[in-house]
Predict the 3D structure of the following.
Amino acid sequence: DRVFCARGLTKVYHMGEVDVHALRGVDLDLLEGELDVLLGPSGSGKSTLLNILGGLDTASGGTVVYRDIDLSHATESDLTNFRRQHVGFVFQFYNLIPSLTARENVAIVTEIVENPMTPEEALALVNLQDRMDHFPAQLSGGEQQRVSIARAIAKNPAVLLCDEPTGALDSKTGIVVLEALKRANETLGTTTVIITHNAVIGDMADRVISILDGRIADIKTNTSKRDPS
Ligand code: ADP
Ligand code: ADP
């Protein structure tokens, strides 16, 4: 099943006299339950694309549809509802509230959505069942990022969008975080898109989508992962 359908997506940022063409015509389908990685050099348009898929930003041209919601013609309040109901975000920085425990940081989100997991379930999925009553300052960077993943998945989003979730972590810790995302994807069936430079993702992803200069340069389907024969 197709979750996202993007056609001819363009994004232009007007910077005074200069137009920055961040996306130059992106056609992309995202399939339900897949874990895809967006790869490409800095400035190629990865974050712009992710933000448009997540309803944090709008395209300048083209169309992007999530199931039966046309995000390219949605109002600001439609986009807010879309984000709240359907999308979990993970960023490079964890944005945890320092005065709340891991459990409480996750509970903030589960209190405002319709069909949440419990904070305990979400934290167990990222292997933090033993850290639930710790405060952010008592947790390592990788653990804090896993709390932020638990917070994102606890609302049971259909889509999980991750923008450099391992960007502030050393590569070994980054692998643990990516494995937590993979486990969530496999357990919950959450359609997941990850921007990362961590090479290990190539083995975990269903597809590696390469972006170059605002366009999709290449899509590699990871057949070895799918078909062990
Ligand atoms: P990536 O995530 O691949 O590093 P981005 O999507 O962040 O790329 O950026 C693509 C291009 O758009 C870059 O040239 C960047 O400088 C520009 N850009 C991104 N966001 C903005 C913004 N808010 N205002 C102006 N230019 C932007
Ligand atoms: P709220 O429900 O608190 O009003 P929003 O509807 O603005 O939140 O946003 C929904 C989701 O999008 C939240 O998970 C929030 O973390 C994320 N989000 C919104 N705006 C931004 C932003 N500028 N940068 C990063 N994440 C954002």
